[in-house]
Amino acid sequence: MAQSLAGKRILLIVGGGVAAYKSLDLVRRLRERGAGVSVVMTAAAKEFVTPLSFVSLTNAPVYDDLFSPTDEQEMGHIQLSRAADLIVVAPATAHLLARAAQGLCDDLATTLLLATDKRALYAPSMNVRMWAHPATQRNLARLHGDGAWFVGPNSGEMACGEFGPGRMAEPLEIVAAVEAALAQGADLPPVADLLCITTAASLAGRHVVVTSGPTHEAIDPVRFIANRSSGKQGHAVAQAAARAGARVTLISGPVTLPDPPGCRTIHVESAQEMLAATMAALPADAFIGVAAVADWRVAVAPQKIKKDDAAGAPALALVENPDILATVARAPGRPQIVVGFAAETQNVVAHARDKLLRKGCDLVVANDVGEGSGVFGGDSNVAHLVTREAIDTLPKMSKAALADRIVAFIAGSFSSARGENA
Ligand code: C5P
Question: Which listed residue, 35, 205, 281, 415, has the most CB atoms within 10 A of its CB?
Answer without folding.
Answer: 35
